[in-house]
């Protein structure tokens, strides 16, 4: 299986193993296992990765507007309206991209069999 299979499944919010079962039971809450193939979803955890990537992307794309609006030579009402539009775009992009980013990172973890780091006691006995 190529890496494109879990990525395509993530874009549809589906399991990266079978591409059939749904990943989410809530907005960002993952199911404990796939309804279709039985893949255990508790073996991987995306933690704050999706939020970091989405936040960083939104900052790169929309931050210039937050800096340009105060110095723009436009009426104050247009500035207020502009801030409202940029704020709505910020929230809308975050809500749209967060589940997508979480599904992509999660499916890639399952595909590469990546698990959380586990530290063993290294002390001499």
Describe it for me?
There is one protein chain. The chain is an all-alpha fold and 125 residues long. The chain has one domain. It has helices spanning 4-11, 49-71, 76-111. The chain is elongated and about 60 Å long. The N and C termini lie far apart (44 Å).
Given as residue ranges, the uncertain stretches (5+ residues, pLDDT < 50) are none
User: Mean of residue pLDDT?
Assistant: 90
Number-wise, the strands total 0
Name the quaternary structure: single chain
Determine the number of helices (DSSP H or I, runs of at least 4 residues). 3
Query: How would you describe the shape?
Result: elongated
Head-to-tail CA distance between termini: 44 Å
Helical coverage, percent range = 40-55%
Q: Report the order of strands and helices.
A: HHH
Structural class by helix and strand composition:
mainly alpha
Strand portion, in percent? under 5%
Integer count of domains: 1
Radius of gyration: 20 Å
Specify the biggest β-sheet: none
Please sum up the structure shown.
By secondary structure, the protein is mainly α.
Question: How would you summarize the topology of this molecule?
Answer:
Layout: H1 4-11, H2 49-71, H3 76-111
Properties at a glance:
single chain, 125 residues, mainly alpha
């Amino acid at each position: 299986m190529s890496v494109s299979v879990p990525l395509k499944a993530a874009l549809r919010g589906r399991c990266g193993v079978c591409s059939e079962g749904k990943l989410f039971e809530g907005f960002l809450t993952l199911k404990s296992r796939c309804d279709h193939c039985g893949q255990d979803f508790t073996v991987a955890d995306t933690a704050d990765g999706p939020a970091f990537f989405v936040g960083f992307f939104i900052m790169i794309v929309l931050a210039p507007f937050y800096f340009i609006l105060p110095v723009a030579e436009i009426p104050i009402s247009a500035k207020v309206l502009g801030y409202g539009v940029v704020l709505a775009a910020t929230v809308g992009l975050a809500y749209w991209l967060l589940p997508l980013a979480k599904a992509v990172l999660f499916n890639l973890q399952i595909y590469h069999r990546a698990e959380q780091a586990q530290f063993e006691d290294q002390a001499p006995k």
